[in-house]
Amino acid sequence: MNTIAENHPFTINEQGHLDIGGADTVYLAKKYGTPLYVYDVSILRDNCRAFVQTFKELGASAQVAYASKAFSSTAMLQVVRQEGLSLDVVSQGELYTALQAEFPAEKIHMHGNNKSREELEMAIDHNVGCIVVDNFHEIELISSLLEKQNKEINVLMRVTPGIESKTHQYIMTGNEDSKFGFNLQNGQADRAFLELTKHEKIHFKGLHSHIGSQIFETDGFTLAADLLFKKLAEWNTDYGYIPEVLNLGGGFGIRYTKDDQPLAYAAYVKEMVSVVREQANHHNMPVPEIWIEPGRAIAGNAGITLYTVGSKKEIPGVRNYISVDGGMTDNLRPALYSARYEGVLANKASQPVKDKVSVAGKCCESGDMLIWDLPVPEVASEDILAVFSTGAYGYSMASHYNRLPNAGVVFVENGIDKLVVRRESFEDVVRNDLSYE
Ligand SMILES: Cc1ncc(COP(=O)(O)O)c(C=O)c1O
Ligand SMILES: N[C@@H](CCCC[NH3+])C(=O)O
Questions:
Q1: Which atom of ligand 2 lies at the shortest distance from residue 295's CA?
Q2: Which class is 41-299 in CATH?
Q3: Could you tell me the residue ranges of all domains in the chain?
Q4: 310 partner at 20 to 30 Å CA-CA among 19, 88, 327, 346?
Q5: Beta strands at 23-24 and 18-20: parallel, antiparallel or unpaired
Q6: Where is each Orn/DAP/Arg decarboxylase 2 N-terminal domain found (predicted)?
Q7: ipTM more than 0.95?
Q8: Could you read off the pLDDT of 92-151 as tens digits, one per residue?
Q9: How many Cβ atoms sit within 10 Å of the Cβ of residue 74?
């Protein structure tokens, strides 16, 4: 038995192949080709339910908005809609995809640190549930659009509470020196508060903070809630302001390798509900609705990527490399954040480990490495490699580097597989090219 597979929510079938959602991954690789993203839809649903149910059990008013930047496609947003979640979008493209999936506009929250006039116009036109304002320029834009369109809109204010979360520097967002949001301490948030509350067409519902991503502790969220409430209490005393919503963002950590020890999603929810109730009580204010925005926690562990092994390079006494038919084009995270992953040979999933290989992508780039020193059985060309926990920020950060077509996406549920994003063709790759002759 391969112990790596045991760390991930998948099984090994009678043929000794890795199984996902009741489908044989080797069969899927043959049927659809590789590289291929495959999702177990029942895990997606379980992840959605873990958040929603816990709020329900605690009797807390809440909205769980899936952060669609983690993985957005029509089918994915249909599943999220079926599970009753709200949706966080950060661009016109993500909003457009949401509308394609018939996501109810009133459950869509529009984010972004540089929303364009067109993006805001589209959000207001479609009556999205809320715009999370990020800066003064945006307040001006929203204001002029509301006048022009004679519309009203709900707004949250994104603030940086000044918290350094324990995560990679590039995915840390709640610290003071951040491109996102209004500074809570230096008077910016107070100035924005006055601008938002005086505006007749803006309904200022409350504060938003997102402290970072891939976080394994609850204390950052507790601290953020404390700091946000301090500010809200000031506004309550000075202006009689009563917030309806407190959005504590996303960032709940998942398991990529055995070194990651994620908390149950319910643990974050329980802590948030408890601290928000405590703080509201302490400041003598009504308990606001709690909104959260998990992305990775919904999509991450539900997805794997299948590759076909090609060439091998042995450097005696140094390292053995194997190369696969994808790489940084379908999973940028190792190259961008030195992110670590685990994988198995899907066609040899029950065979004993014999070797250690480093898995290289096919791009013309030394940094295009997917996994260093992966324990594997004897590996041969044409083996199928499955990399775990690639469901978030894999497809969504894919590129066409070296003119590689983007991989397709397959959903599996109850043993039934369905193609939900077509693999790109070479025609797709040159689709927007225009001739210069
Ligand atoms: C504002 C905001 N909300 C939610 C998320 C989702 O984060 P995660 O996928 O880590 O849950 C992000 C990304 O970090 C974000 O910037
Ligand atoms: N894309 C990042 C996280 C950033 C999320 C958006 N704020 C990742 O893959 O981990």
A1: 5
A2: alpha beta
A3: 3-33+302-430, 41-299
A4: 19
A5: antiparallel
A6: 50-299
A7: yes
A8: 999 999 999 999 999 999 999 999 999 999 999 999 999 999 999 999 999 999 999 999
A9: 14
Tens of pLDDT, residue by residue over 325-347, are 999 999 999 999 999 999 999 99
Q: Is 205 in the pocket of ligand 2 (CB under 6 A)?
A: no
Question: Do 41-299 and 3-33+302-430 have the same topology in CATH?
Answer: no
Is residue 173's pLDDT more than 70?
no
**133: amino acid identity, one letter:** V
- Which residues have CB under 8 Å from 342's CB, separation 6+? 4, 7, 8, 256, 257, 258, 371, 374, 387, 388, 389
Closest ligand to Cα 169: 2
Check whether 22 is labelled as a binding-site residue: no
Q: In this structure, what token pair is assigned to residue 20?
A: 């996902």
Three-state DSSP state, 248: coil
Active-site hit among 48, 130, 363, 364: 364
Contacts of 158 (CB under 8 A, 6+ apart): 111, 132, 133, 134, 180, 181, 182, 207, 208, 209, 210
Q: Report the distance separating Cα 6 and Cα 257, nearest Å.
A: 11
Token digits of residue 226: 């404390």
Q: Does 174 show up as a binding residue in the annotation?
A: no
Q: Per-residue pLDDT tens for 366-387?
A: 999 999 999 999 999 999 999 9
Return d(Cα 393, Cα 295) in angstroms, integer.
9
Instruction: Centre a 10 Å sphere on the Cβ of residue 369 and count the other Cβ atoms it contains.
Output: 17
Asked whether the beta carbons of 215 and 197 are under 8 A apart, the reply is no
- C-alpha to C-alpha distances, 380 to 347, 376, 385, nearest whole angstrom: 11, 11, 11
Residues paired with residue 411 on neighbouring β-strands, in sequence order: 39, 418
Compute the 3-state secondary structure of the chain and give helix, strand, coil in percent, each to the nearest 5. Answer: 35, 25, 40
- Contacts for 420-426 with beta carbons within 8 Å, 24 or more apart? 420/73, 420/74, 420/75, 420/76, 421/37, 421/73, 421/75, 421/395, 423/32, 423/33, 423/36
Token pair in block for residue 227: 């700091």
Token pair, residue 165, equals: 């979360």
H/E segment holding residue 371: strand 369-376
Token pair 């044409």 is found at 382
Domain 3-33+302-430 has CATH 2.40.37.10: yes
Closest by CA position to 327, among listed 419, 397, 276, 237: 397
User: Quick check: 160 and 208 in contact, CB under 8 A?
Assistant: no
Of ligand 1's atoms, which has the minimum distance to the CA of residue 294? 11
**pTM higher than 0.90, yes or no?**
yes
Backbone φ/ψ region at 150: left (φ over 0), alpha (ψ -120 to 50), beta: left
